[in-house]
């Protein structure tokens, strides 16, 4: 009896069928395309999945189960998508949709729901959609208060949107669950930012108080026009915390004849100008070879807001100087100091600077 071959058990094969040893190039290409697009061999989810009915059918099979099993399967699928390349928007979008499908199963398994919300929050965090991520983290915590990841993730998001106090709260809650190094490091960063914010708030509070008092005293304030050399290390105009508060302002003294400068850090509003300048002349100025500059033989000028210069009364108090001229007090006051008995004063100073009230 002749042995039966494979095709003897198959219906629909012609009696005269002769199997081919090789396919033509065209047949090989067709077979390759067919297998490449077959759901059993496909290695990625195509963007136009609606054009693949077989794949859609297989995908829909996962929904033919209990809500818990469906959500678990979807969680696994979404995680696999993120493992492929979770930093690419295409995979993030697909995974986000799958996590959302799983969440919508409302399976009742709180631990599973917490993982789904937490993982979806991670995608929102990667996309810098911090508010959505924060909400998902809070829903995750509601479902599983002992799950540490959403606490940490929520703290990360709050840190990014500069809500440092609330971020610290979630860090502390996470550390109550587990003393993780990564959480400790985030907490240090948050505390540093809180300290910076507190200092900034305190400086703004002082500045507001300073502006209010200057306004009461009839003194205008504004930003500095020039940048001082670093060696001066100037103090800005400030308030002495006494009752009533007293203004102190730094002073830049410029000697235009010699192109030299002195810097006085603290000048009280109650001090007269000559009293402030007196320490400069306790010894002769090193660049004044003729020694003509002294407290009894100098004139002082201040630049007004319009660019002109006004001569100052050196017996006047600093408060009256700041009040009595159309000048905006900036981080410091700059005055020009000249000696009227020099050739520079007679020949150059008047042409270099426009003096309004030369007396």
From TrEMBL:
GO-annotated cellular components: cytosol; nucleus
BP-aspect Gene Ontology terms: protein folding
Coiled coil: 180-207
Repeat in keyword set: yes
Molecular function GO terms recorded: Hsp70 protein binding; Hsp90 protein binding
Domain spans labelled Cns1/TTC4 wheel: 247-340
TM region(s), chain numbering: none
Protein name stated in the entry: Cns1/TTC4 wheel domain-containing protein
Organism this protein belongs to: Paramecium pentaurelia
Lineage: Eukaryota, Sar, Alveolata, Ciliophora, Intramacronucleata
